[in-house]
Each structure stands twice: as structure tokens, then as C-alpha cells.
Write a structure and sequence with these properties.
CATH topology of the largest domain: Aspartate Aminotransferase, domain 2
Distance between the termini: 21 Å
Radius of gyration: 21 Å
Shape: globular
Strand order of the largest sheet: 2-8-7-6-5-3-4
Order of helices and strands: HEHHEHEHEHEHEHEEHHHEEHEEEH
Largest sheet: 7 strands, mixed
CATH architecture of the largest domain: 3-Layer(aba) Sandwich
Number of strands: 13
Structural class: alpha/beta
Number of domains: 2
CATH class of the largest domain: Alpha Beta
Helix content: 40-55%
Amino acid sequence: MSLSQADQSTNRPRYSEWIRSSNNITQQFMAIGGQSDVVSLAGGLPASELYPVEAIKQASIRALDRWGSTALEYGPVEGFPALRAAIAERMSREHRHRFGIENILLTTGAMQGLDLIGKVLIDPGDLIVAQFPTYLGALDAWRTRRPSYRKLDWNLDDPDLLGSLPRAKFVYTVPNYSNPTGALVPQNARGGLLSRVIVANTWLVEDDPYLPLQLTGAAGPSILAADAATRPEGQYDGPVIYLGTLSKSVVPGLRVGWVVAEPKVIQLLALAKQCSDLSSSMFSQAVALEFLDSGIESEIIPRIVACYRERRDALCASAEALLNEWFEWDVPPGGMFLWMRAKSPALDTNHLYSFALQEKVAFVPSSVFDPDGALTNAMRLNFTRNVPDRLEEGVRRLRRAVERYLSS
């Protein structure tokens, strides 16, 4: 739903201009997810029945016992120092380069990291080269900055792309199981993009929330790891700005994310964060630290992956049986989403969306993943939130919605 016609019925000062280019689709599918009679395939939510409630409870008790009132205070803008050190160690282990605490900023979820990057790097009209289709949350985070976009289609020898990179403030990519497509970007394409970013002397934002959700095969090294491997040991000083989170591997309610970048970028992001929230929740960060120290995360991830693999397969099988006439897709090797492309360019998922809601099923139309809103013949379906039987029911309802749409 567009907000371009936002109500301005009084004579008070007008709302900010950026509101006119926004939408409330995220609010819609978050609200729809709470309606028991609707099969929501729209959100990007983990399976709540897998949340480690007891482990979080015990971690909360240990955090208060260990840190006392410190966990209940305002904290450093950069984040709880002990957790920053733990994340630096984690990143050093996973990415095979020593990252220091000066390379780490803790955020209220990775989404805040995107927002801070926009505040630090984007002035009105600046160019972003963005992997396409583009994560809706990133487009929303930067909407107030009013940037322009060049869509990254991974044709890395395209003269237009090569000409755009030196003018771009940064390149944005989600190489591991991208939202919305679920695609895993091959290592040669990652390396090719990194080399071109280095030549262009710009930044590369690597958004990596879905790394733990490797359903088929391994993701391989991150772009951050590839760049760090070429640099001397010590604090990282390269062009990659990396975002991570515990929302997919632990629970989203902790709202614990992090940014990894060269120290100067971390300092500037912290300055922007200071203007935003003073500090993220010290209590959440203290609980996250105790949870990570316990090693429970490594125990629960295999159970999460097995569950999501079963649900992905159930959704794909139902789609093959009931939607194959109109849509095509690739089975995602990881993440949370199935990206369905209409075989006919005339099939408009913006219009299909209203028929789906009438059938009590929800998805996300492709237009919201396009900075121009012009991509209208695809849709994103989530498979992590619902059990297989409910996913199958959702696909049956979606088939009825397609049939009604085509006959209308």
C-alpha cells in the first residue's frame, strides 16, 4: 500500500517529502502474521516454536548475576565492551583474520546498521549500486536520504556498471541466500565485484543475516573474508562494511546485531548512533553474551536448519503441484524465502495481492524490492514460519487467488 496519498486533512505543516515515496507493506505483513485465519507467507520471521526460551531465561539470570546493575544502565554507544570483544573473536574465527574491538559496533539488530550506514554515507541524490532485487528493509532504511540507484545484475563487465562504481557511495549486496530471492552468489562473482570496488575506491556493504541458515551445501567465504585475506594481520582497514545479527540463529527479540568495518567508519557510525538511541539495550547485549558463552547457539542451529529444510521442501513440492502452470522458481540453498517469477510478464503480483488477501493468504509482491517499483511479475514466499501442512494450505489458497485474478 503506497503512502503517496497520506492524509493531510489539517492546515498544519505538511509531512516530510520522503513519506510520499514510502509504503506500509512491512507493517501489513507483520500484522497479518498475527491473524490466525490467514496463512501468511509474507513475513521474514523465524519459527517461534524453535526459540530457546529456557536457555534465554538461564542466560538472563546469569547476566544479572554476573553484571548486576551494569546490565540495566545506559551503555557505551559502541556497545557492551565484553560483547564487542566476543563478536570480534567470533568474526576472527569465522573469517580467518584478526578483528579487534575497534572494528566492531553493536546495533539494535542489523536493520539499525543499515540505517546508520545511510546516515553516514548518503547525501540526497547520491548513487547506490544495489543487488537487484533489493532487500526491502534496506530501501526503507535509506529512503529518507533520497538516493538514486543503479541495479546490480552481476554482469560485472557491463560498461554502465563500471562507469557507475566510481560515482557510487557504496555497493550493497546480500550474497548469502539473498532477501528476497534466496540466491547464493557464486564465489567468482563475489571476487569479481570486490576487485571492481577496490579499483573504483568505494565502499561495499555486505549484509549477511542468513549465514547460519545453510540448508543445502555451504555458503563459502564472505566477501569480508576474501578482502581481509589480502591484508596484513591487525585491525581491519578495508572497504567492506559487514553486517551480522543474532536474529536468525538465536531470537529476533534480543535485537542484537553488529557492524564490522575499519575503525574510522565504526567511529562515524557510533556518532550517528549517538543521535539515534544513545545506546542499544545493555540487558539484551549482556544476555546475548551469556548465551554465546554457553555454546547453545551451535547446538540449536542444526535443529533450525533441519526444520527449515523440511519446510522449504514442502513449499516447493506444493508449488510444483499447484502453481507450476503460472510460475517458475529456483530451490533456494539457504535462507528463508522462495522467489517465484511469473511465466507471463502480464501477470501482475500487485493486483494478485488483493485476491490473495481475499483467499486469506499473504505474500510479498516483487514491486517493493525494486527502487523504481517497476518489478511487478514476481513474489516472495516465506517458508520458515509455518509447518508443512499449513504451507500446503497456503499454496492451495494462492492457487485459488491466481485463478480468480486471471478470470477477473
